[in-house]
Every structure is written in structure tokens, then in C-alpha cells.
Amino acid sequence: MKKVLAVAAVSGGLLLSAPAAFAATPAEHVGNPKAYLRVMPNAARPGAKVQIRLGCEAASTRTPTSSVLTVGALRRVGRQNDPAKAPAAAASAIVKPVKPGVYQVSFFCGGAELTTKFTVLGERRQVTKVPSGAPQTGGGSAALTP
Questions:
Q1: Cβ neighbours of residue 124 under 8 Å, at least 6 residues apart?
Q2: Which end of the chain has fewer CB atoms surrounding its CB within 10 Å, N or C?
Q3: Would you give per-residue pLDDT tens digits along the chain (146 residues)?
């Protein structure tokens, strides 16, 4: 009997919390359910080239902006009249020389702002262990002769 009550209590808690999860619809998709924004890859080092893809059904779309990306011209890609998808566009971008961290990329689709996160990675070290001390010299066949 206790097991049944425990399962019912847990199940009831999940049912009560489920509407809260569905209520958290992102504000950027209100009126634009097919709109999207992607940065590929979503993490890169300064100087790297990344691709931005977006979809928007609105008549007015602004070029994506970010404090860490220099974004090129937006160009239309793919079929523009597919009723199952939002008209798509793409742009290339270069990662600016900034501190490593997570930054925001955004664009406006009609009156709604869509945002995504982009991570700037730290510089890659050439070697994993830095050598220490002087290199060994000498040896060889000449060192063996008396």
C-alpha cells in the first residue's frame, strides 16, 4: 500500500510540474513558430570561420549580430516557398580576438528577437608538456672511442 501511495505521489508531482514546462515557450518564437537561428560549429577559436543559418517567415529580417563575430552578407539558401519550413538564409562569420567565454548571437525576425549562445575557445597550446632543462648533446660513436 505504501509503494502505491509513493508512486501516486511522485506521478502526481510530475503531472503538476508538466504544465510549467510547457508554459516556458521561448518569447522569440511567438508569432514565428518556424523561426530558428544556428551557429555551426557552436564553439571556435579566434580567427576561425563559422556558418550562421537562420529561418524566418517575416517580411523583415535583420542580419545576425554578435559582439564576437564579424558577420558577412546574408544570402538566401534552399527552397524559399516550402510551407513546412521557414525561408532559410545563411552567412559566414569570423570569430573576433576576444577572451574565451560564452557570448550571445541574435537576429530579428519580424518583431521577435531570436538568440543563441556561441562559445569562444581559448588558444590551443602547441605542446602539452613544456620541456625544461638543456637538451642533451654529444654521445654517438665518437664518444665510445678511447
A1: 45
A2: C
A3: 444 444 444 444 433 333 333 223 344 445 566 788 999 999 999 999 999 999 887 776 778 999 999 999 988 887 766 666 677 889 999 999 999 999 999 988 887 889 999 999 997 766 667 667 766 665 556 555 55
Q: How many CB atoms lie within 10 A of CB 140?
A: 7
Number of other residues whose CB lies within 10 A of the CB of residue 11: 10
- Read out DSSP for the chain? -HHHHHHHHHHHHHHHHHHHHHH---GGGTT-TT-EEEEESSEE-TT-EEEEEEE--SS-BPPPEESSEEE---EEES-S--TTS--EEEEEEEE-S--SEEEEEEEEETTEEEEEEEEEPPPPPS-SS---SPPP---SGGGG--
In angstroms, the CA 42 to CA 53 distance is: 12
Q: Which CATH superfamily is domain 33-120 in?
A: Macroglobulin (MG2) domain (2.60.40.1930)
pTM above 0.70, yes or no: no
Residue 113 to residue 60: CA distance in whole angstroms: 12
